[in-house]
Amino acid sequence: MSPRLCVYAKGDTYEQIHTMVGLVSTAVSMGWEAHVYLTYGVLWRYVHEEMAEAEVTISTPIVREKYIKGIDAGRIPDLDELFEEARELGGDKVRVYGCTTSVKLLHLPPEKLEMCDALMGHASFLKLAADGKLVVT
After folding, report:
1. pLDDT tens string 74-104
2. In the structure, what pLDDT confidence band is assigned to residue 111 with cuts at 50, 70 and 90?
3. Strand, coil or helix: 71
4. Which residue from 23, 22, 38, 32 is spatially nearest to 93, judged by alpha carbons?
5. What is the C-alpha to C-alpha distance for residues 94 and 124, in angstroms, rounded to an integer?
6. How far apart are CA 34 and CA 81, in angstroms?
7. Nearest to residue 55, comparing CAs of 42, 38, 43?
8. Which residues pair with 37 in a beta bridge?
């Protein structure tokens, strides 16, 4: 059984989503499983394919400026594309779960949720993550 990365993705800023996508991509490249639980804003951005349009909110001005320049110059890849590539590369080792509470609160239509492998609540995700490496972004 390969190692299991479990990411509880709650942040919807560019750098939070970038961290999540980077972790999933790295895990896949190492042959790990990657299970991603998306909540609220990041779930919204994912199902609308708008992760790359998230706001950069780094509070240190010089770091924020350099980060934005890296995005604009293409040194930081498009997050939607990079995540899709990780899903394709990882195949069935990459699973994406939508938070049931977030789905209800955001009134997400069923056709948008087809991008998720399943919907589940917090308790179900924590059970799944019990034998893995849990990371919160």
Report:
1. 898 899 999 999 999 999 999 999 999 999 9
2. very high
3. helix
4. 32
5. 17
6. 17
7. 42
8. 8, 97
Domains and CATH numbers, the chain: 4-136 (3.40.1260.10)
Question: Residue with structure tokens 């400026």?
Answer: 65
Distance CA 49, CA 1 (A): 32
Euclidean distance between CA atoms 122 and 103, whole angstroms: 13
Strand partners, 7: 36, 135
Nearest to 125 by CA among 92, 88, 91, 100: 100
In the three-class reduction of DSSP (H, G, I as helix; E, B as strand; rest coil), residue 34 is classed as strand
In terms of pTM, does the model score above 0.90? yes
Q: What is the pLDDT of residues 34-71, one digit of tens each?
A: 999 999 999 999 999 999 999 999 999 999 999 999 99
Residues in the chain: 137
Query: What 3-state class would DSSP assign to 95?
Result: strand
Instruction: Answer for the pair 14, 56: CB distance below 8 angstroms, yes or no.
Output: yes
SS3 content of the chain, % helix, strand, coil (to 5): 55, 20, 30
